[in-house]
Specification:
- The chain is built from seven helices and twelve strands.
- The protein is α/β, with parallel strands linked by helices and 298 residues long.
- It has one domain (6-80, 159-297): P-loop containing nucleotide triphosphate hydrolases (Rossmann fold), CATH 3.40.50.300.
- The longest helix has 18 residues, at 245-262.
- The structure holds adenosine-5'-triphosphate (ATP).
- Adenosine-5'-triphosphate (ATP) binds at residues 15, 25, 43, 45-51, 217.
Length: 298
């Protein structure tokens, strides 16, 4: 079996518990992500999603285990991995445009100033930012506009891997919906790989090829990988009409509502630490009525 583009191998994170001992946030988290995949991770607060993301970004080191991208162990941050946080993290003294050109110029040092600016403007346009807005500083933009700049900045740098930590967490539902569409627009047609943390089940179904489900911490693990068997392009209004939508949604709700707690602290079965692949497809015809809409493949 060929190795995945991104390979997370037996990651374990321990932290001091403040009483002179350690506690284990998650243990032996192992999974792979293929090039160009859009993967969301869902799990209750504290199970270790942000910790995993910081390790993938190279901003933190795990207690044990390794992350490999293109077969090379991740150590330290790199322009090959872009991160978008919930709180925008824009440079407040630069305009929206300069916030984007700043990274692009570093990423493509051979480009002329015009190439850098044109490239930045193209990505700002993709997220709906044009005209005067791109010459304003972050404090003069709305929260939604600031997050659009963050997304444009991350994609314009064309990293191999984009890490999104609840990028829409602080936005109202309407703005969130619009920017979800823009995110898909800017991602599709690229071969960029996206790993995104969200607490929103519907957002994850809309955006992801696959959703990873984590059990509750401490001793959390990545228990399932749920395939989103709904073809693209997807739209927020039409997706709910798809026959698989509620079957997938119910599975996720049930996992987060009950099984994530029931499975908490349990070690993985057998020797494999990989999540169980869950494929729910009500559109396939099968002669086995007990397996017609839920197939779990190890
Ligand atoms: N530097 C640290 N030192 C000690 N404990 C930490 C540290 N960073 C995180 N933790 C603990 O590790 C656990 C996982 O934290 P993490 O932020 O990764 O969870 P999360 O799943 O992203 O949560 P949320 O959804 O609330 O953002 C939590 O119990 C947290 O308190």
């Amino acid at each position: 079996m060929s190795a995945s583009f991104l390979s997370i191998e037996k990651l374990t994170q321990e932290y001091p518990d403040g009483k002179g001992d350690n506690f284990t946030v998650f243990e032996n988290a192992s999974f792979g992500i293929e090039k160009g995949e859009f993967v969301c991770i869902l799990g209750h607060s504290g199970c270790g999603k942000s910790t995993i993301m910081n390790i993938l970004a190279g901003l933190a080191e795990p207690t044990r285990g390794v992350v490999k991208m293109d077969g090379v162990a991740v150590s330290g941050p790199s322009l090959d991995r872009g991160v978008v946080f919930q709180n925008y993290s824009l440079l407040p003294w630069l305009t929206a445009l300069k916030n984007v050109t700043f990274g692009v110029a570093a990423r493509f040092p051979d480009w002329t100033k015009k190439q850098v600016t044109d490239h930045a403007i193209k990505f700002l346009e993709k997220v709906g930012l044009t005209g005067d807005a791109i010459h304003r500083k972050p404090s003069q933009l709305s929260g939604g506009m600031r997050q659009r700049v963050s997304i444009a900045r991350a994609f314009a740098n064309e990293p191999k891997l984009l890490l999104l930590d609840e990028p829409f967490g602080a936005l109202d539902a309407l703005t969130r919906g619009t920017i979800q569409d823009e995110l898909i627009k800017v991602w599709s047609g690229t071969d960029q790989t996206v790993f995104m943390i969200t607490h929103d089940i519907d957002e994850a179904i809309l955006l992801a090829d696959r959703i990873l489900l984590m059990t509750n911490g401490p001793l959390a693990r990545v228990a399932e990988s749920v395939e989103i068997t709904i073809p693209r392009p997807r739209s927020r209004t039409d997706i709910v009409e798809h026959p698989n939508y509620y079957a997938i949604r119910n599975h996720l709700v049930h996992f987060l509502g009950q099984r994530s707690a029931d499975m908490a602290g349990q070690p993985a079965d057998g020797t494999t630490h990989s999540p169980k692949t869950v494929r729910i497809d009500t559109t396939t015809t099968t002669t086995d009525p007990s397996a017609d809409h839920l197939r779990a493949v190890q």
